[in-house]
């Protein structure tokens, strides 16, 4: 009871609740789907730059497409992990995005392909044209 009264006095006395330690749940999540593990790519660097400039409003994660994985199911997993943006880096990752069925679950997900070819339903950046500004440019229309 003493703790409850002390807490009430803190807030009643004009104090404000502390800032949350983490904004992970409220932040947007962007996921890089790469064709190989551990390779530092311009797309990964661009996503990291975007996250750093966002002030904690964007979290980025990197995933490598496993060699024997079902590509469509793997893209579905990223959607299930609440990736609001999926950047497919490389031809294999782009093919995975192309084969993934579009369902209601991915209605709010933005797909960006960084490969030698375009994929229907995804924004496109050529491999030599990737930067944080270029990614922001293709993602800008989505509020």
Q: Can you put this structure into words, describing what you see?
A:
The protein has about 140 residues and is α/β, with parallel strands linked by helices. It has one domain (about 30-140): Rossmann fold (3-Layer(aba) Sandwich). Helices cover about 35% and strands about 20% of the residues. Strands 2-1-3-4-5 form a five-stranded parallel sheet, with helices on both faces. α2 crosses α5 (about 130-140) and α3 (about 70-80) crosses α4. The radius of gyration is 19 Å and the shape is globular. The relative contact order is 0.16.
Short descriptors:
19% strand; 5 strands; 35% helix; Rossmann fold; 5-stranded parallel β-sheet; single chain; alpha/beta; 143 residues
* Contiguous runs where pLDDT drops below 50 for at least 5 residues: 5-10
Identify the strand order in the major beta sheet: 2-1-3-4-5
What structural category characterises the helix and strand content? alpha/beta
Strand runs, count: 5
Number of domains: 1
What is the element string, with H for helices and E for strands?
HEHEHEHEEH
Number of helices: 5
* CATH superfamily grouping: Cobalamin-binding domain
Assign the CATH topology.
Rossmann fold
Rg over CA atoms? 19 Å
Estimate the mean pLDDT confidence. Answer: 80
- Percent helix, as a range, is 25-40%
Shape summary: globular
Strand percentage, roughly?
15-25%
Distance between the termini: 46 Å
Outline the biggest β-sheet: 5 strands, parallel
Question: Class, according to the CATH hierarchy?
Answer: Alpha Beta
Second-tier CATH architecture: 3-Layer(aba) Sandwich
